[in-house]
Amino acid sequence: MSTVAYEIVDVFTDRPFAGNPLAVVFDAASLATDQMQTIAREFNLAETIFVLPPRSADATYRVRIFTTETELPFAGHPSVGAAVTLMRRGVFPAGRVVQECGAGLLPIEVTAAGSATLTGGEPTLGDPLPPDRLLEVLGLTASDHAGPAAPRSAGCGLAWAFLPVRREALSRVRFDLTAETGVCVFAWSPETREAHARVFVPGEAVWEDPATGSAALGLGVWLVGAGLLPGDGVSSYRVHQGHEMKRPSLLDCTVTAVAGAAKSATVAGHVCPIARGEMTIPPFVG
């Protein structure tokens, strides 16, 4: 029976058994979409990433990214994890590579020490959202909302709803699994430019994420839009995530703004190898 090689790595952490676990499946060109989805369900992680030959002459490699339920055009921790893992396997040397995915061509800077910096896609920022519904699905009250900045959706290839709260509220979140919106709830420290965050994904087997690169990118867009980071120039900020899940993660980010609007954002982190092996290819499609 045919098999496919894979590795399990922990992303956005410099030590094993922390951060966000990821399955990287290699040489996936022969796999059909349904087979990829079946393999992702078997791993039962937040995401599984499949490595394919590039279609664009400007890309180093191509990927497809699956949750346990669906395919995503882009996700941060799979992109960082795959880039470092491919470098370690000798597919390309440390340096700048270009990942082709559903969100387009994304540059990634990979270091020999096992970290990577991902530049997200085109920033998007939605209109202000009423906080009541988001607070309700998180089991929080109006007093937990850290105004005056309003919740909004934001992203750089994958959008999230962002809700600022008081730091002490994070440990009291009780997410409603019937919710229809992915939410990043966070506490922001303007003095240190650090956020402590939790990210929830409705309708998935893994409904809380311990490290979310796409949300960290979107947070920078939200912070510029809220006036909490400068509206011109490059600003650094840091996201702590996963502590409530006992999988502490650290995401180092930048956002570049012009005339009060975010124009690009980056997220960086380390990747720790955990396991490798072969998986049986599902002998069916559909």
Write up what this structure looks like.
The structure is a single chain. The chain is α+β, with helices and mostly antiparallel strands and 286 residues long. It folds into 2 domains: 3-120 and 271-280, Diaminopimelate Epimerase, Chain A, domain 1 (Roll), CATH 3.10.310; 124-266, Roll (Diaminopimelate Epimerase, Chain A, domain 1), CATH 3.10.310. 15% of the residues lie in helices and 41% in strands. The chain has helices at residues 33-43, 76-88, 131-137, 213-225, and strands at residues 3-11, 20-25, 48-52, 61-66, 71-72, 95-101, 104-110, 115-119, 124-128, 152-155, 159-164, 183-189, 194-200, 208-209, 233-241, 249-258, 261-280. The chain has an 8-stranded mixed barrel. It is globular, with a radius of gyration of 18 Å.
